[in-house]
Amino acid sequence: MKCLVCQTDNKDGAKVCRKCGVDMNLAPLWQPDWKWHLKVLGSIYLILIGAYFAISTFLSRIPEPYRMRQIPKEVTPWLNRK
Questions:
Q1: For the chain, does the N or the C end have fewer beta carbons within 10 angstroms?
Q2: Does the pLDDT at position 31 exceed 80?
Q3: Contact by Cβ (8 Å): 26, 4
């Protein structure tokens, strides 16, 4: 069993930590539940979706020569481009 404060390994039935002396019967102050995970992951997904659309909007406003990709015919002879 690990101490919540100093992360020292103690015996399973220990009442106090052997290193820092903290009571081992205390519950952790906070543990995330599924609602917290849902909020955090939802926020992350919304930020990523917003960033995607903002970046694609920015890239669509770049002048045309920088967005075009010209591949020379010598590099891809199998495409039979005319």
A1: C
A2: yes
A3: yes
* Length in residues, the chain: 82
User: Is pTM beyond 0.70 here?
Assistant: no
**Which tokens sit at 73?**
């015919």
What rounded mean pLDDT belongs to the chain?
84
Written as six digits, the tokens of 28 are 């952790």
Strand partners, 2: 9
Q: Which of 20-24, 25-29, 40-44 has the lowest mean pLDDT?
A: 25-29
User: Is 24 among the domain residues?
Assistant: no
Domain span including residue 71: 34-76
Q: How many domains does the chain have?
A: 1
- Residue 79, phi then psi, degrees to nearest 5: -75, -20
